[in-house]
């Protein structure tokens, strides 16, 4: 009798375990998911970003410089609207940092615009340098 009860309990427990194991399933692969690493035919999704690290540049009246970082996956160009603004690079490809500088300003406060363009998009940053009386 004890042997029969043991086998019945064993069979019941084995049935429960097997039925619980069969309830779980793997998550189906979502078709069309561009970032699916399991599908080598589809490249990962990449965001096309264009940005710069600063929104404006302020210089003292002394000789001064700031680091500007361009974030893009394309070729870019940079130009300044005034000769007193010096750029260590006027073009590049991809993410790049470069210096924007100004010589000492012996006169009044002055302003200029720095223009950065990449892939048909443009960012303009105001540049201001304090004068000797400020």
Q: How would you name the oligomeric state of the polypeptide chains in this document?
A: single chain
- Shape descriptor reads elongated
Helix count, per DSSP?
A: 1
Poorly predicted runs of 5 or more residues: none
Query: Total number of β-strand segments?
Result: 9
In CATH, the topology of the domain at 51-129 is named: Immunoglobulin-like
Q: What fraction of residues sit in β-strands?
A: 35-45%
SSE-based structural type: alpha+beta
- CATH class placement of the domain at 51-129: Mainly Beta
**Overall CATH architecture of the domain at 51-129:** Sandwich
Order of strands side by side in the largest beta sheet?
A: 2-9-8-4-6
Mean pLDDT across all amino acids: 81
End-to-end C-alpha gap: 103 Å
Largest sheet: 5 strands, mixed
The percent of residues in helical segments reads 10-25%
CATH superfamily of the domain at 51-129: Immunoglobulins
Radius of gyration: 32 Å
Order of helices and strands: HEEEEEEEEE
Features:
four-stranded antiparallel sheet, 1 helix, Immunoglobulin-like, 37% strand, alpha+beta, five-stranded mixed sheet, 134 residues
Kindly describe this structure.
With 134 residues, the chain is of the alpha+beta class. The protein has a domain at 51-129: Immunoglobulins (Immunoglobulin-like), CATH 2.60.40. It contains one helix and nine strands. The chain has one helix spanning 2-23; strands spanning 51-52, 57-59, 64-71, 75-80, 85-87, 91-93, 96-102, 110-118, 121-129. The chain has a five-stranded mixed β-sheet, with no helix packed on it. The mean pLDDT is 81.
